[in-house]
Amino acid sequence: MGLFSLRSLLSPCVSIAVIFLISSLIGVTFMLGPETELNSQTFAKPARIAVNGLLEKERNNVWDGQWNGEDIVDAYRQWDATVGCEEFRKNLPPLMPIESLQDPNHVKCSELKQLHVSVLVKEHTWIPDSLNNLHACSCGLTCLWTKSPVQADDPDANFYELFRPPRKRKEGDPLRVYLDLEAEKKRASQDIFVSYHAKDDVQATYAGTFFHMNRNHYISPQKNRDVLIYWSSSRCLKDRNDIAQSLLPLVPHHSFGKCLNNVGGQDALLAMYPICGEGGGGQHSWSHPLHCAMSHYKFVLAIENTLTESYVTEKLFYALDAGSVPIYFGAPNVLDLVPPKSIIVGSGFSSMDELAAYIKHLADDPVQYAEYHAWRRCGVVGHYNHTRAVSLDTLPCRLCAAISRLGGKHAPALEDKEDGDSSQDNAR
Ligand SMILES: *[C@@H]1O[C@H](CO)[C@@H](O)[C@H](O)[C@H]1NC(C)=O
């Protein structure tokens, strides 16, 4: 509040000062007649020249147009001086409606049948504890999300992840919610199915942060200058290995996992980056040191285990969150789900040679490389707010709304709708 009132007091003075500064810099007198075209267009342009002019001077003194190929903040500054957020936003493609993301408010307030819903998380592997809460949602809905049968002593729904729910439910029993975020997701015996696709009952993208809260305990300010790509994979699927094998030999890289390891084994990481073993519960989770390590590279190779629509997993989002640029092979509609100009889509190149040449070219150009980080420095752009709005982080309220719409425990028992699927069930 204090800051707000100070700001509103200051802002008129500041804007007047800025206008005077700009007008004196570009030699426009402030006494403009009504016939002078002082529209926003002519005004915006000189302002940019003035700002760039200042930075240009600063750059000549400090940066000298050079880049050591390592210092990421230096690359940011050079991008600020030559492009900047205003220009970046102006050149973004217009926002078109997309079908890859579900409306986070697709349950309307008038459809809610009860205003409090409780969800008991019964079986899970990586549903984060940070979701446990009594959530206050829109439309006056409240949502108790807990792993404790003491807190949810009479739940409206039981939540299952990985472990399949019971095949039968009768009216008065909790609804069965089933979450499966794997590529080969299969509907199980459930009333509500949660998965990564917009057409599933409730969508859950991987763009949230709750399931990797402490992973980015260290982000390196230096990028490796000569070794450009980080890769780590220990489940050596043939298709994935084939892609890696066709690209990696063309670009200097480090491969830390079991597949195509070139750093002298899986233990090499901590020897190379001792800082990655400190803090963030390093030794308690294999993934924490990996995140820290990938932040030392300009590019992270991210290849999904399956190339299918909307299946965009933590492999990509971890790389973004670690401050790197993913080179991505996976879902054909990936660009709907990530910030604009944040990733390099492998399939967009006619050959691996062309892709490799582009990567090397970017690595040497601080301005073009920094542009791939603009999205994180210029505020949320594109559809990324939407991708985040339907992530696992926001699942409780969205799921509780879906449960309420069905009437919770009072929903009639469904015909076993997955019966036609039972051969698939057995095949698993
Ligand atoms: C995301 O931002 C855009 C533009 O600001 C807005 O139109 C849209 O409603 C937002 N989407 C969500 C899901 O918040």
From TrEMBL:
<keyword id="KW-0812">Transmembrane</keyword>
<dbReference type="InterPro" id="IPR001503">
    <property type="entry name" value="Glyco_trans_10"/>
</dbReference>
<keyword id="KW-1133">Transmembrane helix</keyword>
<keyword id="KW-0333">Golgi apparatus</keyword>
<dbReference type="Pfam" id="PF00852">
    <property type="entry name" value="Glyco_transf_10"/>
</dbReference>
<feature type="domain" description="Fucosyltransferase C-terminal">
    <location>
        <begin position="224"/>
        <end position="405"/>
    </location>
</feature>
<dbReference type="GO" id="GO:0016757">
    <property type="term" value="F:glycosyltransferase activity"/>
</dbReference>
<comment type="pathway">
    <text>Protein modification; protein glycosylation.</text>
</comment>
<dbReference type="InterPro" id="IPR038577">
    <property type="entry name" value="GT10-like_C_sf"/>
</dbReference>
<keyword id="KW-0808">Transferase</keyword>
<keyword id="KW-0472">Membrane</keyword>
<protein>
    <recommendedName>
        <fullName>Fucosyltransferase</fullName>
        <ecNumber>2.4.1.-</ecNumber>
    </recommendedName>
</protein>
<keyword id="KW-0328">Glycosyltransferase</keyword>
<feature type="transmembrane region" description="Helical">
    <location>
        <begin position="12"/>
        <end position="33"/>
    </location>
</feature>
<dbReference type="InterPro" id="IPR055270">
    <property type="entry name" value="Glyco_tran_10_C"/>
</dbReference>
<comment type="similarity">
    <text>Belongs to the glycosyltransferase 10 family.</text>
</comment>
<dbReference type="GO" id="GO:0032580">
    <property type="term" value="C:Golgi cisterna membrane"/>
</dbReference>
